[in-house]
Amino acid sequence: MVRVIQGEEVLETDRLRLEPLRVPHARELFPLYQDARIYRFIPQEPPASLETLEARCRRLEKRLSHDGREAWLNWVVRSKETGRVMGRIEATVREDATAGIAYELSPLFWGAGIATEACGRILDLLFGPYAVDEIDALVDTRNASSIRLLERLGFTRTGRRDHADFFKGGFSDEYAYRLLVTDPRPKLSPPPAGT
Q: Is pLDDT at 32 greater than 80 in this prediction?
């Protein structure tokens, strides 16, 4: 069984509040999630309705899989300065002391270092209180921004899977990335002024 640690705690960075995902967050996320650019490299589509997104948030809000073998950790990324929701970040912690991460950020905030800052804070939590040994991520080979993000965070590419998925009329190839607790993590530069 996996324990949920700090599951209800708000995490912070210099610019961000990472709030544990709750059903009421769906109202703020729904308009952001209507932007088709978010779904270019993933099989999902924008949520069909607010109720659909609320149902998804309700499942994730439990923080544990039905069998208790995975912790489902999800945070809404919020700007401290404006109070605006920018997207969501997730981590799945497994019984074998590994975890996976993923993120969905509104294109309105791409290129400002938001995902790097939010993911960096989650890596600290996973390697710290959760004591995971390894964190993995999968990324579409065409998603240059996500590839740069993972490499900026210190992840190493460990493989490629051709025809990993079929969606939106074509096959998707994926790179696998991994970050070990023993890997050196780069010191992330503070964001430029005004971003």
A: yes
